Amino acid sequence: MTYWNWTLDPVRDSDGRIVQIVETVTEITSQVHARQKVEEDKVLLEQEKRDLETEQKRLKVIENIEVVARSVRDSLDIQSISKALIQAIITNFDPLVVYIHRADAAQQALHLLQIHPQPLQEDALRLLQYVPYGTSSYLASVHKQRDPIILEDLQFEVAQEWFAGEGRLPQSYVHGYICVPLWFGDHFEGALTAVLKERISVNDPLVQALTRSSVYIAAALTQARLHTVVKAEQERLRAVLDQLPEGILIVEATNDTITYANAAAEQILGLPIHSLLDSPITSYWGIEIVSKTDIRLPWNFVITEALGGSTVRSQEAILTRTDGSKVIVLGSAAPLRSTDGAITGMLLVFQDITAQKSVEQHKKAFLSIASHELRTPIAAIQGFAEILQVQASKEQKLSPQGLRAITFINEQSQSLTRLIEEMLDITRIEIAQLQLDIATHDLASTIAHVIETQATTAPEHHLQFVLDGLPSPAKLMGKFDENRIVQVLNNLISNAVKYSSVGSNIEVGLRRCSGNADNALIWVKDSGIGISAHELPHIFKRFHRANNIDPSISGLGIGLYLVQELVTCHGGRVWAESTEKSGSTFYVQLPLHMEHPAPQLN
Ligand code: ADP
């Protein structure tokens, strides 16, 4: 095709009449093409501009939704999260219905969180309120997939009835449908659904906006769900603390103020909870810690210790209430740490032991009076029995029966005296009044002496003294209370005699401790009934007797308790190794150069 420019110009005579016509024809194809091109370009440019504007608008909208989704990510209230999101969607788009569901893994169902418009017809709402995964609907099946369900036009969907399960909207004007599963990592948190009057496609801004926001909403739902779990756990813990019979105080590390006090604390301290809360713990001056030696320390010592990272256990304290009454409490304090180990506060636990204390005091008073009252008559019986025994053997006036009776009285009163002494020792230990008389002695000769006397009282056993690695004649000098060590050895050897058969060997040994030559190691080994593994940890407890012993063997179960206390007072330790039915070995590790007695422990 060619384009031409035609021009007809008249040629006139002197009168003005047209006499000729000049026809000019110019080909202008290239100019026309050039002009057409310019116009086409202009149209294209305008179209591109319009497209750009639409895309910008689309991105803006997507961004808007994303911003909302992002902003709710840290919110902990699921309802406000979903409300904000739905608001953002309806402001930017015009969906028929939009709803958010929360997944309930335990019930395998979705619960409706928010829906717009509100209220929807009641029956439709009921269908959406609770959607078990087994229901036949798109929404119920979304937990099985990671990608959104996008239906461009419900009118053309084969499984149209699936929508009926969740829709109940006039079917004819419902077209687009999108349901986005909300996944956070491996956890399915719920679903976000929108139903539209228009058809939709994958590239629609709404589809894009919902898809992109899903991860933020899922994160927000996860956070809120975990928060609910933690909160429920906290409340459970708090309910436990509230109910505990022990007083509990929680103190903040930064300012020493009490942030939690339970009912028992209120009752023990005699102060209402509201006056305890937010007040500094250091303001309770009416509390003194009582040490074993009856020294009283201000109780903020415990607070300093706990905030410094140490755990303070079972401290007795005397608490003077505002009304002047006194309560004895047993308290422990421990630091509270955050996950990175920093001390954030401390926990104080205390119980009122006033009643137990007074019972204990009465018990002690009774025991000490009773022991003294018993000691005097027994000493008299024993003394007179000895006199009679001596007289009888001199004058030979008594019948053999009478002589046996007096010997029996003598032996029995001796064992009664021993028993009373042991009970007195227990009282002394309890009230921390057991004094040691430390002096330098030869431990080898102390042991030899004990063996000698024991050999006369237990002639049917073979007592053997083994000195291991000591020079001859054996000597091992050390500082100890000789009477107390004799008591320890007597107890261990008489047990070995009691719990092994007549005629068997008992080995008493002495050597320096390997690796610690300043300590002596004494052992008493028998081949008797032994102690079972489950009884072994208990035999040093007061009044404990193992169940394999013959009940006719006399004993109260306090000998080993005293042995342990006496050895501990010397700074040493005692333990036993045993195999049932083949024998036991008791070991005593004793420091040889103890200058000061170790503090007594109960
Ligand atoms: P008891 O007066 O009963 O002998 P102890 O305190 O001396 O009290 O000992 C506690 C318990 O330990 C005993 O009752 C016994 O069961 C067990 N026991 C102590 N020594 C021996 C031993 N040498 N052999 C076996 N059992 C022993």
Question: How large is the share of residues in beta strands?
Answer: 25-35%
Low-confidence stretches: 598-602
Please report the total strand number as a whole number: 22
Task: Report the major sheet.
Answer: 7 strands, antiparallel
Bound small-molecule species: adenosine-5'-diphosphate
Query: What level of helicity do the residues show?
Result: 40-55%
Shape: rod-shaped
Individual helix count: 14
Our Rg estimate from Cα atoms comes to 49 Å
Q: State the distance separating the first and last CA atoms.
A: 120 Å
Order of strands across the biggest sheet? 10-9-15-14-13-11-12
What's the pLDDT, averaged over the residues? 86
Secondary-structure-based class equals: alpha+beta
Q: Could you list some keywords that capture this structure?
A:
single chain; 602 residues; alpha+beta; seven-stranded antiparallel beta sheet; six-stranded antiparallel beta sheet; disordered C terminus; binds adenosine-5'-diphosphate
Verbal overview:
By secondary structure, this protein is an alpha+beta fold. Helices cover 42% and strands 26% of the residues. It is built from 14 helices and 22 strands. It has helices at residues 29-72, 78-92, 122-129, 138-141, 160-164, 205-243, 263-269, 273-276, 300-307, 354-395, 400-430, 443-457, 482-498, 559-569, and strands at residues 4-12, 18-27, 97-104, 109-116, 130-132, 149-151, 177-184, 187-195, 247-252, 258-261, 287-290, 296-298, 312-320, 326-337, 343-352, 439-442, 462-467, 477-480, 505-513, 516-526, 573-579, 583-591. Strand 14 (326-337) and strand 15 form a beta hairpin. Helix 1 packs parallel to helix 6 (205-243). The longest helix has 44 residues, at 29-72. The protein is rod-shaped, with a radius of gyration of 49 Å. The chain binds adenosine-5'-diphosphate. Residues 491, 495-496, 499, 526, 528-531, 539, 544-546, 549, 555-561, 584 line the site of adenosine-5'-diphosphate (ADP).
